[in-house]
Write a structure and sequence with these properties.
Structural class: mainly alpha
InterPro entries: MFS, MFS_trans_sf, Sugar_transport-like
Keywords: Membrane, Transmembrane, Transmembrane helix
Distance between the termini: 43 Å
Shape: globular
Protein name: MFS transporter
Number of strands: 0
Strand content: under 5%
Radius of gyration: 21 Å
Transmembrane segments: 52-71, 97-117, 123-143, 163-186, 192-213, 250-271, 277-299, 311-332, 338-355, 375-398, 404-423
Helix content: over 70%
Organism: Ornithinimicrobium cryptoxanthini
Number of helices: 19
């Protein structure tokens, strides 16, 4: 009863139709998912491809071209296999164990990154970390699919969004706390051993998360049969061939990657400009946390008004911000000022929050029922491919300098403005 009271204070909903037994079951399962998601979100702040890992690469002397691959591998690995994994998830009776398997893979990936940070340097360290990040991201894809399914099975409508929202708020709070700790205690050295220790702690958090999640009590439902889950590849191909609005949305979403791929280059330029000490990483982690804390509520309301316009303005804002940042880098006194980098990062993180909320809202509003599920899975898989291509191109350009890669991403954003404007407005207004 005590757990039920705590849960109902955190997650508010109309429970008039729930019996006392149902309320206790929901509180038990909902609390476990909230704790597990919060532990995972906390680990994510350490295994962060936009802040911690670019800083680690700079400290280890990893070539700039590999820095450009961090975000594409992290994001594409978690999206690319989703269309293929969906039938497997649907044919599994106890789906919480798939989440447990994915969490174990993330723990192993974080642990491998820690070993590389402590024992290797240069190109070798970069390659090992990228391979570990690949395994980490593929495991995350399994957690993403199975987690949503378990949530839908064990928590009623009206409470699921609050669980996700609380996890996001906790993630932002943890990021701010972690960033303050790094800023105050990190010192002026760029010793990667400290980051290796943080990665070990992150691996431990995923172990705790899987132990918590394994205790969820799922209802005994019959899984789908093999016949019911066949043909995803053909369906995906037909969707791209026959649905021009969906095809245009995927193109626009790919061009909106400017706000996702640009932040690591800002972090790398900051580390090279004299902020290589570990304490210099703190403001970026804090900025990421602040974007999570304040961005969701603001942009959520704007997306409900017009997700199309929010995507369009987000792409325009990201490209404009990159242009201003690159112009300021031409001024020696500004380039040597530490504040320009975390401020730019914060603004990019806020813009990316808006773009992310907008495209999620758009894909939900543009379809109904099973078509919506198909849109999400197929668009995520397509984005995995696009991310790898964009990452490879920007990585090659980064060999000429991070600024060159940022110019390329800024141009992508401008193209995203043009394509986004051609989308139909699917919001209520």
């Amino acid at each position: 009863m005590r757990l039920t009271g705590v849960y109902q204070r955190l997650v508010r909903a109309d429970r008039a139709d729930q019996s006392g037994e149902d309320q206790r079951a929901t509180a038990y399962n909902g609390t476990r998912q909230l704790v597990a998601n919060a532990l995972q979100a906390t680990g994510d702040q350490v295994v962060n491809a936009k802040t911690v890992l670019p800083w680690l690469f700079t400290a280890l002397g990893v070539p700039s071209g590999l820095i450009a691959l961090l975000v594409p591998i992290r994001e594409s690995g978690s999206m690319l296999p989703q269309a293929a994994l969906a039938p497997w998830v649907e044919r599994t009776r106890r789906r919480r164990y798939l989440w447990v398997l994915g969490a174990a893979g993330q723990a192993l990936g974080a642990g491998a990154m820690a070993v590389a940070a402590a024992a290797l340097e240069g190109l070798a360290a970069g390659v090992v970390v990228l391979l570990a990040l690949t395994a980490f991201s593929l495991s995350r894809a399994l957690c993403s699919l199975a987690g949503k399914d378990v949530l839908g099975r064990t928590v009623p409508k009206g409470e699921r969004g609050q669980i996700n929202g609380l996890s996001t708020v906790l993630s932002g709070a943890v990021a701010v706390t972690l960033g303050l700790g790094i800023r105050l205690l990190g010192g002026d050295s760029s010793n990667p051993i400290v980051l290796a220790i943080l990665l070990v702690v992150a691996a431990g958090l995923w172990v705790l998360a899987l132990l918590v999640f394994a205790g969820i009590r799922e209802p005994d439902l019959e899984p789908a049969t093999a016949e019911e889950t066949e043909g995803w590849a053909g369906q995906s191909a037909r969707l791209f061939r026959d649905d021009p609005v969906f095809r245009r949305f995927v193109l626009a979403r790919g061009l909106l990657l400017v706000s996702a791929l640009a932040p690591p280059f800002v972090v790398a330029i900051a580390a090279q400009a004299g902020g290589g000490g570990l304490s210099g990483l703190g403001p970026f982690v804090i900025a990421q946390g602040l974007a999570s804390l304040i961005g969701g509520r603001i942009f959520g309301r704007l997306a409900d008004r017009s997700s199309k316009n929010l995507m369009t303005w987000g792409a325009a804002a990201a490209s404009a911000l990159i242009a201003v940042f690159l112009l300021l880098m031409l001024v020696p006194s500004v380039r040597g000022s530490w504040w320009i980098y975390p401020v730019t990062y914060l603004l990019l993180a806020l813009i990316h929050t808006g773009v992310r909320v907008a495209r999620k809202t758009y894909v939900v509003d543009m379809a109904e029922g099973d078509q919506r599920t198909e849109y999400v899975a197929v668009s995520n898989t397509a984005m995995g491919v696009i991310l790898l291509v964009a990452g490879a191109v920007s990585g090659g350009l980064a060999l000429l300098g991070e600024e060159v890669a940022l110019v390329f991403l800024g141009i992508l954003g401008l193209a995203g403005v043009v394509v986004s404007r051609t989308l139909p407005d699917v919001s209520k207004g």
